[in-house]
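Bug #77: duplicate submission created two jobs. Keeping one. Sequence:
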Amino acid sequence: LRELKGMEENHPEQTWHKRFSGLLMEMKHVRDKAVSKGKAALSYYYLHKFSTCYDEIIHTACAENPLPEAVPGKKGRRKRGKVRALIDRLEKYKDSVMMFTKDFRVDFDNNLAERDLRNIKVKVKVSGCFRTDEGARDYLRIMSFIGTARKHGKNAYEAINHALSGDLDYIYC
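Kept job's structure:
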């Protein structure tokens, strides 16, 4: 969605990105509705509908952004540009983009992963760097443990206390 938003701002002549953003949001809405009803997966109807619509939008995008003509005498790959590169990635990784509709364990976005990395980036910016590799590994091990405890709904302080006392199964109980 972030790249599609950037496309809207930097390439307003493109028409397909708004439809694609709308499709992604519709997919998320239908998935969230299914999850709230306790379903384990989307129906074949929705999976087929979304897949067909996805393919139609990608076809439109390819038509709006044809590959550049080959220059005679010039070797190598033709430059595609950022727009065409995005279209090609969306086409190539269709299954990965749509994975959240097929497997409800997969999140719609990667915000949680980005949040996990942001803490490390802030630490490096504030401190300038880690003084030793061992210190960096220790910091990452502790932050990983805290993140896992939070994701399992456990108190991070209690999880660390249990870990220090040798009870590593506390998080997973």
